[in-house]
Every structure is written in structure tokens, then in C-alpha cells.
Amino acid sequence: MADVGHGVIEAARGSGLLPPGGSVVVLVSGGPDSVCLLDVATRLAGARSVTALHVDHGLRPGEADTALCEDVCGQLGVNLIVEEVNGQEAHGNIQAWAREARYAAATQLAMDLDATIAAGHTASDQAETVLYRLAAAPGRRALLGMTPRSGRLIRPLLTVHRAATVEYCRGRSLPTVEDPSNATDAFARNRVRSGLIGALKEIHPGAEANVVATAQILRDEGVVLDSLVDGLIDGEAPHRSIQLSKLREQPAAIRRLVVQRLADEAAGSLAPGVARRADDIASLSDLGTAMLDVPGGVRAVAARGTLRFIRRAGLDS
To answer: Domain check: are 195 and 302 in the same one?
Structure first.
């Protein structure tokens, strides 16, 4: 356990996301990943800098999860906040609803405390995320996976595999509980975990690690590509533009990246699918004004040879 525990601590320390004294809200469900993260955050940032947040979605009977979180926080000397949300209000994808409720509560608490939000996503989660997104939608984004930091959200254990968090908790005598919904094939993410990851490991034992390493390589290369795209675009977001003549001069891959960036900025969020229309967009007329509605709720507008994007939803305002 000494080697495993040291490796987990050093991985989190190396991320630079849990500095000593840095105020952080740790999302705690009671599972090994979140309990491991809570202990690691306490050891690196200090117990006084850590606030644990447990969101009870009311989807599972009893209070075992909340009681376990209380025990762990008492053992570590960490303040615990429990938020209850009404599971009867859930609609659509139940996992997505629960995730949104959890992050909404965490965001409000983090703003009140001027803190970051730490989630216990691991390298195993990263591999599952990449494979799930790749299956669900084409494009480079699917292969980039989760980032170590996204706004207030940090993921200090993103290079640590799930097995290590389980062993870490055992070695530290930290109680944990497994969510029984993780074992059901009712959710697509679980099918990736139990079926696809297992099948890939039968092909090569390092499959999970290789997926994670590939995502990291692509994120590093993405920084270079993003810099290149920024150099081609004029103006300030969200009202940036590019000359159509310049867009047509670029290789097809760069054209796709440019139009996707402009579309995302106009939408104020991801506008999936726009890159696939890059050639159609580049073919808009240089004369007068030409428009093309594209996915993601945005419209490409070419006015006198200058391309920009606007939100379709805001056209009437």
C-alpha cells in the first residue's frame, strides 16, 4: 500500500491543483474515488481548507451514503455540507439530471467560499469518457477527453487509475460504498465500462492506459492547433471573423477548426457538427451578403467577403 498511496499523493501533488491552503470543495459520494480524493485534498491543502459536499439525490433508499460521508469527514476533520434534492423532479437521462444537480450545488457553494470544485474523476473515467464520446459523436473533441481544469472544476486524480483509489482507501482504512447503479447495464457509460473496456483489455492489457495517453497527446497537440487558429481569426470573441479568401487558402483540417471555433464562440457553448459544413461555409459568396444555417443553433453570415457567425435564437431580439 505504501507505494500505491505514495503514487496517488504524488500524482495529485504533481497536478498542481491542490496547493497548500487553497480553498476547495470536494464532491463526495462515498465511493472510493471521491473518498480517496477527499483524503488526498486534506493531506495536500489542509483540512481547514477543505469542505466536503455530499448531494443526496433521493434516488436510493436509506441514508447509508450520507452516514458514511459523515463518518469519513469526522475521521479526517473536514467540514461536511449535505444538500438534498428531490429525485421526483428528475426527467430525461437520470444520470445527467443527477450530475447537473450535483454541480449546481457545488458551484453555488464554491462561489460562496471562493473555492475550486474538486471531482474524483480518474484515468479510468477518462478512458471511458473518450470511448463513449467517440461512439456517440465524431470529431476531435471526442478524443480529447476531460481536462484537469475547467473553470472552477479541477480533477486532481485524472492520472490515477480506479484500482489505485480502491487500494488507497483500504490502506488508509477509509470506509467506502459502491453505488449499485454502477453495476447495471441500463446506462450507456456502464456498458462502456463493463463491456467495451473489458474487451479492449483482452486485446491488450494496456488498452485503458493507451486510450488515456492518446487523449493527453491530442490535448497537447490541440494547444498548438488552437494557437494556429487564433492567429487566423480577426477581432475579439464572440464577434470574431475571418476573410473568406483566407479561409479557402487553409488546408481542410484547419478550415474545419476555424469554422468550429467561430461557431462555438457565437453560440456561447459547443455547437457540434458545424465543422462538417466547413466546405459549404467556405463556398459562400464574396459578393453582397450570404447566409447558411448550420447545426448548433448558429448561422454563418458572409458579408462582402468576411465570415462571421450569429446565434439563430437571437435573430428576432
So the answer is: no
pLDDT at 161: 94
Instruction: For residue 238, give the 3-state DSSP assignment.
Output: coil
* DSSP structure string for 252-303: HHHHHHHHHHHHHHHHTS--TTGGGGHHHHHTS-SSSEEEEEETTTEEEEEE
- Assess contact for 88 and 57: CB atoms under 8 A: no
Let me know: does 311 contact 280? Beta carbons within 8 Å. no
Residue 194 has pLDDT above 80, yes or no: no
Q: pLDDT per residue over 199-221, tens digit each?
A: 999 999 999 999 999 999 999 99
Residue 204, in any domain of the structure:
yes
Whether residue 251 has a cis bond before it, omega within 30° of 0: no
β-bridge pairing 50-56 and 79-84: parallel
**Secondary structure letter of residue 186 according to DSSP:** T
Task: From 129, 124, 120, 107, select the one nearest 174 (Cα to Cα).
Answer: 120
Task: Give the CATH number of the domain where residue 291 resides.
Answer: 3.30.465.60
Tens-digit pLDDT profile for residues 256-277? 999 999 999 999 988 888 999 9
Q: Establish if 221 belongs to a structural domain.
A: no
Q: pTM here?
A: 0.82
Helix, strand, or coil (residue 63): coil
By residue range, what is the domain housing residue 203?
2-210
Of 237, 210, 239, nearest to 226 (Cα)? 237
What is the DSSP secondary structure assignment for residue 234, as one 8-state letter? B
